[in-house]
Protein 1
Amino acid sequence: MQENKITIKFPSKCLVYPDIDLSANPDQVQIRTFKGRDEKLIAEISNENFEKKFSTVLKGVLTGIDPMQLTIGDRLYLVIWETINSYSKIFSVDYECEHCWQKSVYDIDLTKLETVELPDNFKEPYELKLPISGDLVKVRLLRVSDMLNINELGKAGQSVWLYRYALTLVNDKTVWENVEYLEDLSTKDLMVIRAFHSKFEHGLKMESKYECPKCGGVGIMPVPFRLEMLLPFGKKLERYTGESI
C-alpha cells in the first residue's frame, strides 16, 4: 500500500540538523499518520519506556531525519501532530479553576496551541561566556538520544542534574569529565548554561486559555502530555469515534 507522506516543518526550522538543507530540498523531512502497525507498538509504551519506544514508532512514520537526533521540542511537536492527524484535534483536560477551585473538564483544540520557534540566526554550537570563571564554553540543545542516556542513568539510581547539562557541552572531553567541570563551576556560571536551555526552548507552548463554566473566571491552564494522546481509550475513544458505531 502506498504511503501518503506530507512535508513537516519543525519549530527548530531544522537549524540544528547539519544534514538537512531545506533551501536545497524543502521536502526532505516527511511524515505520515499512524497505521495499525504503529498502534501495535504504541500500545507497549509506558512512562518508563516512552523515550525508546516512541523513537521506534517515529522511525516508521518519519523520513529524512533520524528520530534520535530530534530536539526535545521538535519531538513534542510530532507527538501533538500525530495526535491531531491520527486521532482528533480535541483533547479533554481536567482542571481546577484558580478562582473558585471547582474542577471542570475542558475541551482543548490542540491546533490552537502556540508554536515556539528557534530564532532564524540560531546556530550550534552556541558560545557562552561564563561571568565568574571567564570561560568560553560551547553548548548545544538536548536531543532524544540524550534523554535516553539521562533516563538510563536515572533508573540506575544516579543523579542526572549535572549529567544532562554535561551532555550538551561541545568539546573534546568525555561526558564524565564535563560533569566534573560543572561540579567545580560556581552556581552563577552554571546558571548561565541552564539559562541557555531555558531561552531556546521550542516546540509547542502546552497551555491554553479557559473560562470556568461555574464562576466565569478566566485564566491559563497547562495542557499536560498524556500517553492517551497517542492511544485514546475509554470515554475519549468514544468521543473521537462519535456516531461511527
Note: The CA atoms of residues 7 and 26 lie 8 Å apart.
Protein 2
Amino acid sequence: MSDPIWNLGPAGDMRPLVCPERDMDISVERYGGIFQGLSGARSMTVTGQKQRFNFELRYLSIQEYAWLEALHFRSIFGVYRLRNPFKRNLLSPNGSLVRSVSDNRTIKVTSGIAGVARGHWPSAAGNLSNISAKWTNRSVGTQVIRIDDRYRVPVVPGSPVTFSMYLKASSAISAASTGMVIDWWDIDSASLGASPAVFPAVATTWDRFSVTATPPANAVFGRGAFYTNVTAPDIYAAAAQFEEGSTPTAWEIGGGAPVVLLDKLETSSPRFPYRTTILSLLEA
C-alpha cells in the first residue's frame, strides 16, 4: 500500500494534506428512505452510498492554509479529487463491483446489455459480493465495456498503474477476439490514446486478467476497458480494480479517489500566525 498520505485537489494538481489529527471521521452515508407499513413491517430503499470526510488540521502555516483557502473559494478550477490512503482500489465502489447505474458514471458498454448476474462471483476475489455483470446482446464489430466511464481515475505521469478484472464466458473466447487497455486523457479531457493491449483468453471459469502501463506525459486521467469482437457468448465481469503499482493486489471495494465537494473550512487560530481548521468534504 502507498504511504498514508491524503492528497486533495484537481487531477493533475493534487497536493498532500498536512497529517490530520487522530479520530478523523471517514463515514459512508446511505441515501434513500425507510418506510413502515400498517403491520409495522419496514422496508428500505437505497439510492446510493456516499463518503463523508472530516479532518482536523492543526497549526497550519500561512502557506499550508493558503491551498485549502484557495480550494474553498473555488479559485482553483476543476473537479476536486481526494486520494484516500485507506484504499488501494481507485475505482468508485460501483465501478469496482462492475455495477451499472443510471448516470453511466460507472460501467458503460458500446452495445448490448450489462445486467446483473446473481450467484456469479469469482471465489478468488473473496466473499465481499455475490453478483457480477452479464454482458449480452452485443452488436457486430468491436464492442467495449468501460469501467468508471465518466469518473475516470487520477494518475501521475511516469508512475505505473494496473487495471485488473475477473472475466468468464458461457463458452470460451480466444485471445484473438479480445483486448484489455488503459485509456489516457490530459487535463482538458483530450484523449492521449491507450496503453498497449493485453489479450485475455476468456474461459468458462473465472480468471483474473490485468494490464499494467505507465501514464504518458501530460496524462492526468486513466480508464480501464475490455473489448471483444464477438457477438456471443455471454461474458461475465466482476471485481475490477485500478491501483498504483505494477502488480495487481487483492481485490477490494473501490473508493480510493472519490470526487469531493469542499463543504466547510472551520478555522481558528491557536496563536498567530498559525491556524487550526476542520476540513469537511462530501463525496459528489
Note: Residues 93-244 form a domain with the Jelly Rolls fold (CATH 2.60.120.260).
